[in-house]
Automatic annotation (TrEMBL):
Pfam families: Amidohydro_1. This is Amidohydrolase family protein. Residues 1-22 form the signal peptide. Keywords: Signal. It comes from Brevundimonas nasdae. It comes from the Bacteria.
Length: 446
């Protein structure tokens, strides 16, 4: 391929993340509005200054750009949870993956927000699936992205500080709008594996991990009470670096949630017990056997991030996995958020398909929409700020050709922070480039 063609392709791709243009007042009229908490059969949504300013049955304000959504569905932008968006380009190419950390001197303090790439080719692809926000999490041996091993992640080194590390690092929230400013909020949660993966990094047994975890929190609290003594080397040696100790203080005092990757019902019970004993705030991730202990999860007021199509007994941790897991958890009163597939990066857009499958297995339609919108915002402390069509929320709105949980439905307009986004991506640009033989580079014409 000629250098000129390579440069042109790169420029075209990078132009998809150009800075957003000045915002305007936009009125979306006549559509069936899914607010995230209710339905308006034929209403009007008004966007101004990056926010939703009104929603209801009123007319468009004077001077607004009017978009006729009659016969279409207007929904909040979806939120990808447990995602790698903007943190990795090709998971198997180490240099493009900023979600993995293997330094044993830095685990809990690892902050993915510093490695985010607003020009990532994955963002426009996910955006075309209706995703406008994402919770980006560091990878660890139990990550849903697969192909992650203990030696590739935090705490895998020898000597020095605690080896191995129990924590993968800290998650961040991003928006998927064009431009370089995609970070919404860093350090929204800590991440740690439990179950088989957690046992592996702690020496091989589940009991070892729980004891080590409790001892770690004890050291964090000791450090928090005696920082001055630590500074003058008047405190006993601690197993964590100072950066990790500082990062874990809000976890230990219950102000920063801990995303716990766990699958087996008995492991879920033990994690709930640990949270009670230590007074920490947790979010369950995975929980394929959660339906077996749904009442206990609900009683503990613990939310769950799940993939509702995880139903194969691929190992002893998910022997009881079933397609009705989401419905059972929701019926018990658990707040759920539905994930995409394989780390919610290249297949993040499939979250809506997963939600549709959950509906076909008993999850109420309204609960499925909430699991893609208002619930993720609520789980991560951003309720009312995005994930719903309501006055004051971010102007993240998608106009769909039909039901957004139907695979054949496609977006006809996407707004992020009130700014309309292009309906294109690198895969579509490549499709269009090579659709006609005459557009192919000379070497491909023979």
């Amino acid at each position: 391929m000629r250098l000129s063609h390579m440069i042109a392709g790169a420029v075209a791709a990078l132009s998809m993340a150009a800075p957003a243009v000045a915002q305007e007042t936009v009125a979306i009229v006549g559509g069936r509005i899914l607010t995230g908490t209710s339905v308006i059969e034929s209403g009007t949504v008004v966007l101004r200054d990056g926010k939703i300013v009104s929603v209801g049955s009123g007319a468009a304000p004077a001077g607004a750009r009017v978009i006729n959504a009659a016969g279409k569905t207007v929904a909040p932008g979806f939120v990808a949870v447990d995602s790698g968006l903007a943190g990795t380009e090709v998971g198997s190419v180490r240099g493009t993956n900023d979600l993995r950390n293997s330094a044993n001197t830095l685990s809990a303090a690892f902050d993915v927000s510093y490695g985010l790439d607003p020009w990532s080719f994955t963002l426009p692809v996910a955006r075309l699936g209706g995703i406008t926000r994402a919770v980006v999490v560091p990878q660890h041996p139990g990550s849903s992205g697969g192909h992650v091993h203990e030696e590739d992640t935090a705490g895998a080194g020898d000597g020095g500080f605690q080896t191995p590390g129990l924590f993968a690092g800290q998650a961040a929230i991003i928006n998927l709008g064009q431009g370089s400013n995609i970070l919404v909020k860093p350090r929204v949660a800590m991440v740690a594996p439990f179950g088989e993966a957690g046992a592996a990094v702690a020496g091989g047994a589940r009991g070892a991990q729980f004891v080590l975890f409790k001892e770690t929190l004890s050291e964090v609290r000791l450090y928090a009470r005696n920082k001055s003594a630590y500074e003058r080397a008047g405190l006993r040696n601690l197993s964590l670096s100072r950066a990790d100790l500082e990062a874990l203080i809000p976890v230990a005092n219950g102000t920063l949630p801990l995303i716990v990757t766990v699958h087996r019902a008995s492991d879920i019970q033990q994690v709930l017990r640990l949270a009670r004993e230590e007074g920490i705030k947790i979010i369950l991730d995975g929980a394929e056997e959660g339906w077996l202990v749904a009442g206990e999860i609900a009683a503990a007021n613990v939310p769950v991030l799940l993939n509702p199509i995880s139903n194969l007994p691929s190992d002893f941790e998910v022997r009881a996995a079933r397609m009705e897991n989401a419905a059972a958890l929701n019926a018990a009163g658990v707040v759920i958020a539905i994930k995409g597939n394989e780390g919610s990066t290249h297949r993040a857009r499939e979250a809506r398909y997963n939600a549709g499958n959950a509906v076909s297995h008993g999850l109420p339609y309204s609960a499925a929409i909430a699991a893609l919108t208002v619930n993720p915002a609520r789980i991560f402390g951003m309720a009312g700020q995005f994930g719903q069509i309501a006055p004051g929320a971010a102007g993240d709105v998608v106009i769909w050709s039909g039901d957004p949980l139907e695979p054949l439905s496609q977006p006809s307009a996407i707004f992020v922070n009130g700014v309309e986004q292009p309906l294109t991506s690198r895969p579509l640009l490549l499709r269009d480039r090579y659709l006609q033989p005459t557009t192919m580079p000379p070497a491909y014409r023979n």
